[in-house]
Amino acid sequence: MNQDKRTALVTGAGRGMGREIALRLADRGLATAVHYLHSREKAEGVVEEIVRKGGRGAAFGADLTDELQAANLIALVEKEFGGIDILVNNVGPFLVKRWDELEGKDWDAMFRGVLESAFFCLKAALSGMRNRKWGRIINIGYSRAENLGSFPTVTPYAVSKAGLLILTRTAAVSEVANGITVNMVSPGLMEGGALPAGAKVPAGSIGTFADIAEAVAFLASDGASAITGTNLIVAGAWKM
Prior knowledge:
With 240 residues, the protein is α/β, with parallel strands linked by helices. The chain has a single domain, classed as NAD(P)-binding Rossmann-like Domain (Rossmann fold, 3-Layer(aba) Sandwich), CATH 3.40.50.720. Helix content is 42%, strand content 15%. Helix 1 links the parallel strand 1 and strand 2. The radius of gyration is 17 Å and the shape is globular. The two termini are 32 Å apart.
């Protein structure tokens, strides 16, 4: 995928999974906007690595739970690079807390951080993609987002990710005629992530950030033009 004239924005890309996704897309020839909230130095480090490899990148700070800041981020990236062709909504907090100990602020933090931040960026980026009749929107989900079961310790997180999947499929149907695909990549257990206490993990079910980045890179490519509204689960056989 040599897409020298295309630009990707990866939210929450200063570290972890977002960093790996940003670097993978840059390696595929995309100019890459690296978003951060607090990790400015780390985000700038990602940009330095992209530039060192001969790519083009820039770092942008914003609180994506604020609709105006999210819209401003999109505008700044478009001004810097001339447009956004690929949007990866990676931002999303994680909370482990018993459901009967939750407070209103916990629900608000999950909804705004996981669901509304993605919606704000998606909505703001659509205009340019529609004008160009080409776009890729990839939301980072949760491997059990389609499982409407019991989530006693991650209830608001699971509800928010299920909502993100509904948003993904709604936007996919709406935008297919505009040449825009909207998909979700849903990680399972990741190396370096939180493992449930006493979890019995099937062999090969712990993934890496590189696994997620590869899935995102595929969905961002021209070769995935007929794939939209899908939830690509990258979780081995975890909870299968």
